[in-house]
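pinging the channel bc i need a second pair of eyes. not urgent but kinda urgent?? the chain im working w is below, pasted from the shared doc
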Amino acid sequence: MDAPEQARRLSELYDEVLGGGRVPGVPRPLEPRRLEPRPLVAESWQRSLAASVDPELDGPPLVLAAELLESLREAHPLRAVLPILRATLTSIADEASHIMIVTDAQGLILWREGAADVRRQADRIALTEGAVWSEAAIGTNGMGTALAADQPVQIHSAEHLVRRIHAWTCAAAPVHDPDTGKVIGAVDVSGPLRTVHPAMMALVTAAAQLAEGQLRVRMATADETLRARNMRHLIALGDAPGALLTPTGRVLAVQPLAWLPDRLDVSTGASRIELGDGREAVVEQLDEGYLLRIPGPVRRRRPLLRLKLLGSGQPVATVGTREIALTLRRAEVLALLLLHPTGLTAEQLMLQLYGDEGNPATVRAEMHRLRNLLGEGVLDTKPYRIVADVSGDVTDVQVALRRGDLAEAVELYSGPLLGRSDAPALRVERAELDATLRRAVLDSPDADLLWRFAQTSTGAEDLEVFEVLDRQLPPADHRRPAVAARLDRLVG
């Protein structure tokens, strides 16, 4: 049916149910079955009437002062995603003679944007910034009912409990905090009755999902910042069990493997908490988040891990005395974890291995296989990182270069880092290591050092290396013929 006919029938239903004193959604015994409001609407009417909302109410009982409203806006998490909500909804709402509304979890209207003539009409029913449109304040309505039912809703005409709002139609969807899962607000599109459109429900639902996705991205960025700044506290525990928590108690990093749930209750601010299995943990406040640790003696020893990743040979991991030949992909994963000792999330590993075309699920599956291959106590999760006592040829070269021991760096350098790898991050690491070592050797007056570098696969094809050798080697040096031959080949 068209919008006016639907509104007429809803108005008849409204008068029959509320005017006749019937309980919404509950037929009288032995009565012939009558037309009933939708279950969602009937439940909302029941909640609203139980909250003593008068169907003849003239307007919302609470409108905040402008100064208080602005302070609430500043602190609200939906402020960060307001641009994406505007981009998704405002232009469409404007064209369709609607307004876009964003509320907090209590139904307080924080922002309202859209067509000027519709805003003026909305002002007449106090559908404006600073007004509270919860069910308890003004009865059944799009944003209030979406918050109460925690689901997207569309409320049309006389489905509103308060008669004064019957000339309006609205669609709204709740927005959830990706950290806690709690409702933090609602996004709503409202307009005069003639502007009803069946697509509005899908539109506000999509906008709420986009907002939640953007909040999830911001949370992941904040998690990584917290982890990078505070991981040293967890590492400093050595072999003792511990965890790094967000300010809300979500577990960001843990050692050893999988001994904690995803979240702990730190809301009481207590310095000790029960873990639910008989253990008690100490909670230490950090600048950002918390450090959790279990006091007591340490009985676990870390395994030793040695990684061979330079040169053209087979990459090898040695755990204790056990040598394990590595596929290229597994060597790439271990190289990245070696070069990022504080750890990487599945998403970060994906980007560094595959770029934007990767899939975190592929990384998680590979990490599961790699952990099984290397054995217990070598790799950890949340984030993925090496927890064994690890060393590697690539990091040995980097350390020697940092302390200025060029002779040891050249001695340890057996070739490029995983030369067959196309992983974006490893291409950068490989180029940086080769360039740093090459420049240091070329700037050195030591011809013997330059000659040793020329014997590596990196130096062997470098024209400048052999030109400098040709200038530096004494006339009678026995290596001159080899240098001259290589120059002829490289120049020719």
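so Residues 29-33 have pLDDT under 50 and may be disordered. and The radius of gyration is 33 Å. — does that match what u expected or am i reading it wrong
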